[in-house]
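Retro notes
What went well: the complex prediction finally ran end to end.
Inputs used:
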Amino acid sequence: MCEGILVQEADLSAFRAKLGSEVEQALPDKKVIRKEDTTYRIISKSVTEYQFIVPFDLPDEERVEVGQIFSIKDHDEARGRRLTFLARVLDIQHGSNYEGNWDTTMKGTQFFDKEQIFNRVFAEPLGCVNCDGSFRRSRTIPTKFSKVSRAERSEFKFLKQVMGDIEIGYLRNGSRLVEEIPVALHSDTIDHHMGVFATTGMGKSNFMKVFAASCMRLAARGESKFGLLIVDPHGEYLKGKGSIKGLMHLKRYRDGLACYSTDQKNSKDPYVEELAISKGEVRPEDVALLYEWSPPQREALDAISRIFEAGNWLEEIQSPDGLERMMQEKFKDSTVNVLVRRIKNILEKNKYIQGRSSLANMLANLQSGKVVLVDIPRMSDRSELFLLSVISRYIMEEYKKDEREGRKNCLITIEEAQRVLGAGSNTSRFETIAREGRKFGVGLCAITQQPKLIDKQLLSQFNTLVIMGLGDRNDRIQLEESAKQDLSTLDIEIQTLEKGEAIVSTLNIPFPVPARIHRFEDYLRRLEKDDANEALISRGGFRPFLE
Amino acid sequence: MKIVHLADSHLGFSSYSRLDQHGQNRIEEMIYSGFDQAIEKIIQLRPDAVVHAGDVFHHVRPKIKPLVIFQRGLFRLAEMGIPVIIISGNHDAPKSYSITGPFRLFEGLRGVHIAQRYKYERFEVGDYNFHCIPFCLEPRDYLTEFERIERSSRDVLVMHGLVESLRSRKMRSVGEHELKDSLLKSDFDYIALGHFHGQTPICANAWYSGSVEYFNFGEAADRKGMLLVDLEKGTVESVQVRPKYMIDCPAVDCSGLSSEEISECLMELCHDYEIRDKMIRINLTNVNRAAYRSIDQGKINRLGAAALYFKIKLQFNDEAERSERPVDRHKLHEEFSNFLRGEASQKRIPKAILDEVVAYGSELMKKAVQSRNIEAFDASQ
Ligand SMILES: Nc1ncnc2c1ncn2[C@@H]1O[C@H](COP(=O)(O)OP(=O)(O)OP(=O)(O)O)[C@@H](O)[C@H]1O
Ligand SMILES: [Mg+2]
């Protein structure tokens, strides 16, 4: 510090200019290294992890986030290099070129040198795209110092080729959308079971509606490959609630939907059939689901199919003659009376059990590839399981019979699936479907908030996972340990997913894809509008050529 | 209130061209007499109304005779003060607005209510509302017309078509429409259905009355007649109009039988089934061709002369294998799109225009086929 010397502002700048030119003259062959030359370039490290650095003080717009996908352009025409690598950010750390505890120095003249600090980004390779636009897993590393930039639409084009026919959302890069790239599941993999996982309120129901809407569209156009059964105990899918829309609102593709309801209000609609199950279709195993049974009661229940005719037991056991026959089999009348009382109670409560049956029709609709919605609002947990059990047994039995030509596969949705697919649950029916349904073209779509309660071995048979926000670590671990694709690196991202955001892991798409699930109401509007041109064609109009 | 529910009279149907001594088609006459008998039966039952659930006539442009027979029946009922509710069906409704259907002749008669304008109509008879959905031009229309129904607390629904749950029983007649099961609401006091010729309950409150007559051997096992429905009590009672007169005999295995034995077998069957004035089909399987040829054909003809209709269905022992192979039959537009997709997979058609061409072409073909069918169907025979 030179005391007493006053420097005029103008003199100072002149001095600086002079100094600058002197420095440059003094270093004739040297060049100043600029930030742009060192950041956003691959600096390490291996086939399984890429690292690059970015400025430590980026504006919000440019901040790097976990889950973002970057592209690494390893291009050098002259040397015949044209690969583009894609990598997903796993972590971001503070870094610097200093060693030791420089950043915690307590006292001194200079605290730090901005030029030497940065953020280090750790990214996981997804694969590489070659010049003809095809994608494959990468067995090599990008050339050192290759340029890194946030992946653009054009670099995701290859994804279009691997996407399926059931659109569910758009590709997401971090929290930004890539609108032109829809994320779509494959019909072909659907009989392999599928899982939808999210903490409450993260958008499971919304997802199912979007999924069903895409299926309706396929069905109405005669392109569907499977029928989708949804049993809806909350009464939220048919007409929605308030501003939340339902599947009935997708008028354009209503032909792809068949609705059954126990709700008088809903079944007034000509498109909605009153749900009916005939007494002959109820089996003792179904009734078993509805109550807790003492061992003798259980035994009596199990004996029913031996003593009575399958189609008629529900009536017969209630008659004096039926009581007699049970007692001949050495069951106490008190035991049988409990059974009969409970059966009466079931019939009383479930008015849809009557002479007619909707099941054959439901089956026909599923086999022709439609979405079948069974709307049972305000039904108790157990009654719902009972109904689901009756329906899915019927479906399974029918699918086991000879395959009719042109029969479509079937996907059975189970809400709160941990109830029936949990370790130690007594509802072996669904586990049977999970284990052997595929052979007959029947798959499960399990929806749950608590994947940790689902039997691990079952979970490992799920080929399509739609994972939305999951706060509980054990839930994530369970999924990561049983998923077919490696999800372990995505732990942080899954934890930080927001409402409607998802990671979609499915067989035909080479890596778990980040997606923003469509908001159903927006998707509806788009479907009604977008496909207007197709309506023109089907009316006999002609749109000569596509681009 | 009690109603009689009947349907599918198909007046004017004639087939198996066997003529009586006046040169009239015997089956056609049989159907007229059955209709007369049905009317007399109704008059005996004294219901508060009659519902005919479609296909009064077999043709869109019936000949004069069926019109006269129908008019006579209508007048009889009017005379007795029994109101009549009728809807048009796929057989007697023209398939376009431009053609005038036969029911226009009977409009405006007192106590006669006819729904035949391809749209929902409501008739108040007694203290009930009869909600009628006649034959509509498009399958979708049934749903939209249904939406116009406003329930009172006493409602009867009348429709014509094949309900979904009988899908396997498709009759494949032109203009056959499927009725969604979702239309069979339990809050109607009664749903009177027409089109399916066997008397069948579909659910507690919905019935096909079936036809009074037989129209082909597929119906041999059907229950025939009308229904007497008590709307207050909710009871449905079957009313037989005439005794069963169609017999499709169980197949007789003729393997190893000589020509004498076969002809003996035929005589026995004819005797056992009392074939006079009946429609009968005898089914013989594993017949030796040569043995059958050597039977005196004149004798066989005389054997069946007393029958209203007589047919021997033969399956020779040398054709057993090929009989059951299903034919892979496609509709024209399916054929067309399969062909184009095949061509495209060989790269003979550019992908970019494939969907476009398939969609447009199929649509044209569907239309062409449809209008062809309609022409054939509307033409008077
Ligand atoms: N992809 C999305 N985009 C925008 N909003 C969404 C999306 N998914 C869900 N939401 C909104 O979040 C709210 C809750 O969604 P939803 O009912 O689907 O959650 P959920 O997981 O089914 O909840 P629950 O566990 O209560 O059944 C709804 O209001 C819905 O509109
Ligand atoms: Mg929900």
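What we learned: Residues 245-325 of chain B form one domain.
What to try next: split runs per interface for comparison.
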